[in-house]
Amino acid sequence: MSATGLKLFPLRSRHVLPGFRLSLAFTLVYLTSLVLIPLLALVIRPAELGLDGFWSAISTPRVLASLRLSFGMALAAAVIDSFFGVIIAWVLVRYRFPGKGLLDAVIDLPFALPTAVAGIALSTLYAPNGWIGSLLIAHGIRIAYTPYGVLVAMIFISLPFTVRTVQPVMAELGLEVEEAAATLGATRLQTLARVVLPMLWPAVLTGMAMAFARAAGEYGSIIFIAGNIPAVSEIAPLLIITKLEQYDYAGAAAIGVVMLAASFVMLLALNGLQSWTAKRR
Amino acid sequence: MSLTVDSVTKKFGRFPALNGASFVAPQGSFVSLLGPSGSGKTTLLRILGGLEFSDSGSVRFADLNWLDMPARTRNAGFVFQQYALFKHMTVADNIAFGLKVRPRNRRPSHTDIKKRVTELLALVQLPGLEDRYPSQLSGGQRQRVALARALAIEPRMLLLDEPFGALDAKVRKELRTDLRRIHDHAGVTTVFVTHDQEEAFAVADLVAVMKDGCIEQYGAPADVRRNPRTAFVSEFLSA
Amino acid sequence: MKKTFFDGRSGSRRRSFLKPTEDPLWLRLFLGAVAIGFIAILLLLPLALVFKEAFANGVSALWAAIKEPDTLASVRLSLIAAGIAVPLNMVFGIAAAWCITKFDFPGKTFLVTLIDLPFSVSPVVAGLIYVLVFGAQGWFGRSLADNDIHILFAVPGIVLATIFVTFPFVARELIPLMADQGRDEEEAAATLGATGFQTFLRVTLPNIKWGLLYGVLLCNARALGEFGAVSVVSGHIRGVTNTMPLHVQLLYDNYDYAGAFTVAALLAMLALLTLALKSLLEWRYADELAAAHRR
Fold first, then answer.
1. Does A182 sit within 8 Å of B50, measured CB to CB?
2. Could you tell me if A178 and C20 are in contact, meaning their C-beta atoms sit under 8 angstroms apart?
3. What is the chain B residue with the closest CA to C9?
4. Over the stretch B40-76, which tens digit does the pLDDT of each residue have?
């Protein structure tokens, strides 16, 4: 086909490669039936309560407590994981020692391990007669069956996110800025504090946001260690299930919508963060 | 107070980057290390800056055993080929960095630091750019900021690693002239690495032509050009 | 100890200070201890506990627990769910990556965001949405009951929930990978007269095979291990609608700790195998994995 041939018949070949319609159709059908329609059900269902009904479903003390617990502990877990995540990533990227590869692979354990397995393991470990729980009970600290159990489970589940977002950024930093700081007279600690850490900040925030999103929605690894006492140690996902069992579909959907909205906001914030950092660099 | 480099060697694993490099430069002179890639010129420069450690040999400068001091205390300003500016800091903060990290007893006051930054920006011909970020500057501007940053600490030695390598020809010529002017004004001993012989000859008092980790010839540009001592030198200069 | 651990020196000349880019020894020891200690306590202890409890009553008790009919039924159900979800999601991943990376059309970013959605949604919400559609009070609840079709509290519901939470894995790996690889080779094949399927099989597939394997590996691990979403749609009928993770919960809630940890140990071994294969792929085939590029 000559170039003029193409121009004369623009409708003939809109796409160079074959298979566009087939793959797009399959993708759209799959996504629509699997994702969009069920999500639509989630958003529409609370509507039958009306705005007032929705609001009162959300603002019962029990629901509010569960949302406070899920989101509050998720935030705390994200901050703690970010702190340790930076340290762990630094050690993995900058130091050399035997067994480092193994340590690096283990970081992904919370990612690969089924949440129920993590749940019963953590619950047994931090129970008053568990390996760690028994050590802490001597000092009056209870973890299992209290809100702190929720926190520990969330720290476990979110760690990979904070490490893996910071790790590649650290690896790409390059040593030159640190060398420049040294030639200008900075001590190693000054270099780390004034040059290295500020450059990692966007990645740390991103990891924190992802850790928060994951922890807030987590269910399996938390319910065994949590205690699940309404308004005390009951996480929002558990409350959704409880409401479903009571056939309060609208109430369950209402909480689901709140959680979905929070995920959405988090996604937007993350994307905004990415484009803001892209402009700054 | 001359700079005396004596038989410096350095191996990276099995690869001999420096094979006994030696030269002497009087205080305040402008020396250029010239050679193809792999000749060891950058390695030698980084050793002078404290960013690499030599395997053997010595360097004396300002009556000090230079190689026994960590980079932090040498007060040798270093300008990198890719600028190595602190992207999260403004131009002013970049330049002031070396002054702000000084221990309290040696740190100038806030106002003095500000004054110095303004002076340096004027010196490198970038007045008024204090509050810009490096990402908002052109390549030539970034390199000027890097130079100002290195000069802020009142260095006793200025080291430049192919500083104009990433810039186009016109900007290179301008910066080259400005660099020489600043050097003459400050009187600081300067070592300048490049692979561009026109650049080296235009700007330096003394040129060291390097190959395979050794200094093949060392002298004033005119002498080196007129009397090339080895076949490599004459070939390199005629290319 | 100095030479191999936290090696800080280069060059044979003895010096009392470090390179400017190296941390002082005390900092290295401190950070190393914090990192290793944190990982050991947080991650390794629970893992060790699982195996210790599984073997608490000896190997024969372990074996007997595995051969329990309800346990075997849960293994079968998990394998069925994964066996349907993973191939379907693999096909989806390939189709989505093909149309997204080899063509330009409006709404691409929206599509990609939609694909990422299950990652940011709570697993319980993932199960909830299917209850809202197929449940007794859901949209299709009445008509399903009239026709005696059981989606929820039966295998189809479990399969659906599993598909939902695992479908992004293959797509998320293939999309950046195929985007990186560009369209040149496929276009060349097109000019040489190959059909779509021929192009895919002979040109694209060899280039993406390791990325595809990687995505399938993660997809499979998640499918076998999913708990929250499946828990909502399952009904928890012992021996019938319990996957392995649900069976772990059932045994644990009934104080059969040895049994619970036995099944948990099986799942943990699967997780370790997944991690090992994942690391192997990342190490050996880093160039052909998008995930490794991100690292």
1. yes
2. yes
3. B53
4. 999 999 999 999 999 999 999 988 999 999 999 999 9
